[in-house]
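Propose amino acids for all 126 sites.
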């Protein structure tokens, strides 16, 4: 709400969810099972992934805007969310691998172009 610069009344209007429910969600002091539709309405009103709050309510990491929306009634929901997260992690690992290769290339260049007593020694036996 702070990031979007909206108040409680505006969120109630935008989400069509009662003030009491939004307060309970915001404060987190009342633990109730919420319908996926209620959580989706608030998530969308907050400009988050439609299943952002649902994932949190299930103890899962929050979903990013690029994650797929899956059927809440479908028995494959958990599997589909798992696959989406694995794919996201795979992309992150590819980025880390690419950055590692760039660093290795830079270090090799540094070693090849440095002379004298300050030349780095990357030999692990050292």
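Proposal:
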């Amino acid at each position: 709400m702070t990031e979007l610069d909206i108040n409680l009344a505006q969120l109630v209007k935008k989400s069509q969810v009662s003030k009491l429910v939004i307060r309970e969600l915001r404060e987190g002091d009342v633990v109730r099972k919420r319908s996926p539709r209620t959580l989706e309405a608030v998530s969308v009103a907050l400009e988050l992934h439609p299943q952002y709050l649902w994932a949190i309510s299930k103890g899962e990491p929050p979903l990013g805007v690029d994650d797929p929306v899956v059927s809440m009634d479908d028995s494959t929901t958990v599997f589909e969310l798992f696959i989406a997260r694995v794919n996201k992690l795979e992309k992150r690992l590819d980025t880390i691998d690419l950055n590692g290769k760039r660093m290795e290339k830079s270090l090799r260049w540094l070693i090849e172009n440095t002379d004298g007593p300050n030349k780095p020694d990357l030999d692990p036996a050292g």
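Residues 77-112 form the longest helix (36 residues). The CA atoms of residues 34 and 57 lie 8 Å apart.
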